[in-house]
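Worked example 4.2. Below are the chains of a multi-component assembly; read each line carefully before continuing.
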Amino acid sequence: MIAGRHRIDLIVNGRARSIETAPHHTLLEVLRDDLGLTGTKECCLVGECGACTVMVDGLSVDACLMLAVEADGATVTTVEGLAADGRLNPLQQAFLDHGAAQCGFCIPGQLVSAGALLAHNPRPTRVEVEEGLAGNLCRCAGYEQIIGAVLAAAASRPDA
Amino acid sequence: MSDRTVGASPARVGGLDRVTGRQAYVADVRLEGQLQAKLVSLDCARARIIAVDVSAALEAPGVHLALSAADLPQPVPRFGPQFQDRPVLAVGETHYHGEPVVAIAAETRDAAEEAASLVRIDYEELPAVFTISGALAPDAPLVQDPSLRPGDPLAATNILREHHFGWGDVDAAVAAVVVEGTYTFPMVTQFAIEPHGFIAAPDGDGIVIWSSIQHPNWLQRTVAGVLHLPLAKVRVIAPDPGGAFGGKQHAKYEPLVAFMALRTGRPVRLVLSLEETFQAVRRGASEVHVRSGFRSDGTLVFRDIDANYLIGAYADIADRTVAKGSYTSAGPYRTPTARIVARSILSHTTPSTAFRGFGNPQQIWAVESNMDEAAHALGLDPVALRLQNLARPGEVFIPGDTPADGDWARAVERAAEMIGWGSPPPPGRGRGIAVGLKSGPTTGLSYATVRLLADGSVIVNAGTSDMGQGARTIFAQIAADELGAPLDWVTVIMGDTAVVPYDQQTSASRSSVFMGNAVLRACRQIQDRLRAMAATLESVEESAVVVDHGEVRVGQRSMPIRDVLVRGLGRLGGEIMGIGEMRKEPAPDHPLGGTAAFFEFNCTAVEVDVDRATGDIVVTRFVTVSDVGKALNPFQVRGQDEGAAIMGLGHTLMEHYIYDDAGRIRNLGAIDYRIPTSMDLPLRIESDTIENADGPGPYGSKGMSEGALLPVAPAVAAAIRDATGVVIRDLPLTPERVWRALRDAPARPDRERGEVPAP
Amino acid sequence: MRAFEYERPAHLDDALALLSRHGLEARPLAGGTDLIIRLRDGTIRPRVVVDLKRIAELEGQIRDNDVGITIGARTVMTDIAADARIRRDFPALAEAASVVGAVQIRNRATLAGNVCNASPAADTAPALLVYGAAVVAYGAAGVRRVPIDEFFVRSGVTTLARDELVVVLELPRPPGRQGSVHVRRTRRRGHDLASVTLACAVSSDGITRLAYGSVGPRPILVVDETGLLADPSAPEQAKLRRLEVLLVDASPSPRSMRASPEYRLAMLELLALRAVCTAIERLAGGAAA
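Applying the procedure described above to all three chains together yields the following structure tokens:
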């Protein structure tokens, strides 16, 4: 049985994209394989590790648990879309300054999740950061540095 | 001149790519015309392969290859770092749950998956051994064909090797107090967030391999051997691993994809799923019996250890982990006499391999737990017991090996001080302390080349694998400081055997020392050449010229290196090259083949809160102190030590493979194999370092990154005992296990430190 | 994963027609956090996946009226956990929703999907049971209102017909005041599947409702009408004895990887007692009508 292909239109990192995809391909696969955005990573593929975290319509989600066709009409942001005009966003800079990235494999997902957290809760407590990032596993276990970076980025934001 | 970077914490070199998503890991590499591979394995621990039918698979659209052992050169090539026991594909029998029988190559991942599902394997499930007792039973099926070990008296058993270490006469030793116990360590897996990935592509009359391998040169040798190619025709490109922890040290499926690439004439890409990765690599499990004898004043008299490690179906480097981990298992103590017997026992399970700690955590769990029990038996404070027996700097504590190379007592005192050992913990909580020792590399060879370019910028070629420990940054720092270049004027090239000179391996926490020294020596060679250049330019003797970091000084005058370069290189331009080497030759008579280049030493102290009703453990405070010689980059050192600590909490509190009664792994994947998340951290974690510049590495540094994992489990268990009185000798200390131990223990009241329990 | 066809009906009737036509070969897709895992591991191999998220009649809204609160079928856990009305009046549900996976899962997982998936360990099920929730389904036979206790059959099985879809979940406002809570046991503090998951509601009329999951093939509701559990001054031993009787149908699986039957039963009793205590405190603290 050969399934039909569907055309989906979505905005990825600010750019309108139109792609033909098979329904059984996940958003993660389409981002990486069809759009060449390999910053988002494949790891557990069951929504446990968060290495594939992306923003879809303003919410952080595991791209491995979304079919690409479900993202038709959606606005998607990946790690590649965080730095505007080539300038690191405050979280990215904070991650650098605090030594948050060791092997770096979990970092794209961490950055997206942290961004979602701060968008929703600009001044999180430490516990709120821990809970907000619980869906992003880090085996280098640089959690202290990652949490430190997120808190520092939050503290450095100009007050609304 | 630039500020010194060594000892400071400049931002990680490679950090920018990591925070922008530009870092290319092996799975991100895309080659023109690449085929996607998929492995086919059986859902059982051990099976006799009766027939393999790939005809339907080959007919599926987009399929180029469906390879089984029958399609490989005969006899099927075997490889392995210690024994050439692992076949490229399963031959006649599968020996562990997940051993591949067939490998598919197809145009797309979908096509490969479809074809894989069409492969028909006729097989007969066979009885398997997957526990120590099962493997040692007299009628146990043999994991390895005895013909692979001709002349070996153990060939008809599942004991691959039995190691004997020790000194003195344990049986003649007289001890007032003897403490003994058996301690078990579970099977756990590295669970790097990056699953394993391998790509091979034909390259003229040779081949190129991409792999997140920690040992590119070793892999080059393995692939060249299997393919019968000269080394110069095998190029290994090693992208930074997305975490490795030892699981990516040695060849796994690179030989397989190499054959597939040559067979198809196309690049072949194999990226394992996380489940397949769990089936591919793990740590050795163990059962260690420790018997220690003390004088009544706490002086250690003897250590008698009998250890069984359950390794996997193929040896990989597991037997070396058993040897190395056991050799130092008596501990960093003054031990008058010791007897250590350690066995590597084969089983029909995932081949165990290197994993942070390299055989030591299993022994240290046992011996340090035993030390804590001894402290209680002797009525002595656990910190005092350690201090009393720790080897002092310069003291020989393993006859024939490197003397204690650090002020270990200082690390213990510091950890005790930081956790407030002298004062009682808050009510209901308990404290525990443990130490960990690991030998650094026993032999080694690293080359580095450094090129000082005409404008003063620098290129370093160093073959270390930067898997997060920050090796790239360290080498950049060394070159920057020695040659006076700003850090961002230094480029470090790694991971390409065609371009980067030989490095033996990235393991044993060796790279800051071995490769760091090679880089340092290359820089010093450049400095020599600069001195000669300046002497000529200034018409003075070389001895009158001093090159110190970025400056060249002749008498009272000083000028930046760049000035000398511009004038000295002249109109032809050019560069100055340096080659550096650090070599530690093998000592064939030594039980491990060489003495320790240095030791990693760590003291860990923890405070825990135990919920007696549920068995939940909360680590309220965690202190870790490592003896590092010199922290070349303190941020990175802290990240590594705290990371190792949290990884240690994983196997201490929650990690273990769960098997069914036929030897199949039940908890493959991330849902039921639990590792610490951001919500599982100690409430407060602190780390510190002892830096006495007493290491053999650049600026007195030693290797680090494994030490802080070693004593985590015994420190936590000791704290649980302090809080509740129960002694648990099996890991992980899950809530259920703790609950059971509390329930089964004789009732006893909470004990405030220093008070005697009410009768 | 295996290929399948994908349909994205805009209307409920179209969706139902698809499900009816394809029968067992069609699977509805809501948040995908359960379905996609099973598609990947091959435990289900549908011919057609029917995406419910563009159906006009299905809402992602939480509404309140005189009778209680309705939760639209497309409502995700994040919104349930954050909703002020649910947190105030149905805190056990908000608490349960807040521990379903991690943030990324909660942003996609729907309550309706969680209920239809019918995992015995579903964290939201005990809360829905103690609150006497009802599933409102729509199908060929029209609208059907099914009390939640009649909805769960066993692991993976509900009384939802093949050609029916859940439209809303209803939470009736309790007649008097009540205090309620959700508690659970996991293997770590980070997100995890529960080895025991439990909700308790104590109401001002002295009735205690307790529901628990992950200790048997389906979540179970028990009710104590004696007033003993709800009585703040009743001795703990008496409450434990009562709980022992109430919890007699708990049947933990001996094959579970997460916990042994012995531990599960012990934790069930412990959590039940703790939950009753907390519910009493919350009732006394003035939980709203």
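Take a moment to check your reading of the output against the notes. Chain B has a mean pLDDT of 95. Residues 511-538 of chain B form the longest helix (28 residues).
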